[in-house]
Amino acid sequence: MMTLQELRAAFDAREIDTVLVAAPDMQGRLMGKRFHAAHFLDSGYQETHCCNYLLATDMEMLTVEGYASTSWAKGYGDYVMKPDLATLRPVPWLPGTALVLCDLLDHHTHEEIAVSPRAILKRQVARAREMGYAAMAATELEFFIFEQSYEALRDGGTDHLTPISGYNEDYHLFQTSKEEPLMRVLRNGLYGAGIPVENSKGEAEAGQAEINIRYDEMLKTADFHVITKQATKEIAHGLGKSVTFMAKYDHRRAGSSSHVHQSLWTLDGQPAFLDKGAEYGMSAVMRQYMAGQLAHAGEITALLAPYVNSYKRFCVGMFAPTKAVWSLDNRTAGFRVCGDGTKAVRVECRIGGADLNPYLACAGLLAAGLAGLEGAMELEAEMRGDSYQNAQAREIPKTLRHAADLLEGSVMLRAAFGDDVVDHYTRAARWEIEEHDRVVTDWERKRLLERG
Ligand code: ADP
């Protein structure tokens, strides 16, 4: 990490000349500007501006209609980008570069924009604090590495992706030695950027990797997550390779997840999820928190699985869950209790894909957990065994269409986030569905063109 004074010293020493001023958008991408360090130090550190369509676009940067926050009728004006100087850090994998994350504020009132993902999470974290808890989380991140560069894939299409390994590389140290030109630079780069990397490993598919960052307060964890994604893409690009965080890039292969490990701690640093005398060491607080997440699992699914593609990951026998149930150290369950009986006792939500926006995912999970605490909700019985085969177990919504309906109708999320936020992200989900519905795919042509 870096203070403004340290940035100035690094600029004077000609070590840093560029500052990336970035805000996470609805998709969890880093959007912003590249500042000359002199201008950032002169005035940019106070604030800059961006077009407010950044929180109303899709992947393609379309001006999507149907948002209350902005539109052609409202003139697509500006938001203030307010650097959060606590996030200022060097970017060791880019030459002479530092990065700062921003909050998005109203141009006139300087109040936080309600639909900004960072603001949404900050509000839930503050709610937890008011209830006496620090909300901690870690978001594991899986992705695929391909031999081709993004440019080669753009020119040649994505039909013949070449994963970096020829076999399932789960925990393989030999295969991952071959990937060190990327992964070692990534681990060390993140470490140098003040992101507490724990480890990387091969994952359970050819070309699949995972990186783990140490758990921290949820806002920091979400910040770590978006920077880690950006770093992975940038470092891969520099090596002429590509990576993807799609939840399911090929229906014949496993998908990529982003499991969210969560725990609450008292404000004086005691693990509020631990009660040594109770079953699995799970305190009443943990049981209520999990009860809230189970009760509201369907309503928060669109925040954990935001695209049509996300739902193709939920399939039987591939380590992705299909049921929103809880179980001790059971990888078939949507909610897996880990670290039982220790101060690391926590719940791992396994529903989210690597395509999730970590601010929205953490905010949704936390809001559901806090609703469990507020309602002193009772935790249902543990599901034991193979939840894939359990016909009684609560299903995870199978489509974005269903998840969007549940999001829209969520009284819990409307109370926690506000109607404006729920309506905004329901619109985002529906737009993804509309876009998907109108596109004719290769699959349809292959199936129907000759024989249909
Ligand atoms: P797994 O069995 O899922 O591989 P790991 O031991 O790799 O579990 O831990 C997964 C993540 O859980 C790590 O990022 C770690 O920092 C995080 N973690 C550990 N303890 C806690 C906790 N008390 N609360 C939240 N996350 C935690």
From TrEMBL:
Keywords: ATP-binding, Ligase, Nitrogen fixation, Nucleotide-binding. One of its GO terms (biological process) is biogenic amine catabolic process. It comes from the Bacteria. Residues 117-452 form the GS catalytic domain. One of its GO terms (molecular function) is ATP binding. Its cofactor is Mg(2+). The keyword Methyltransferase does not apply. PANTHER family: GAMMA-GLUTAMYLPUTRESCINE SYNTHETASE, TYPE-1 GLUTAMINE SYNTHETASE 2. This is Glutamine synthetase. It comes from Roseinatronobacter bogoriensis subsp. barguzinensis.
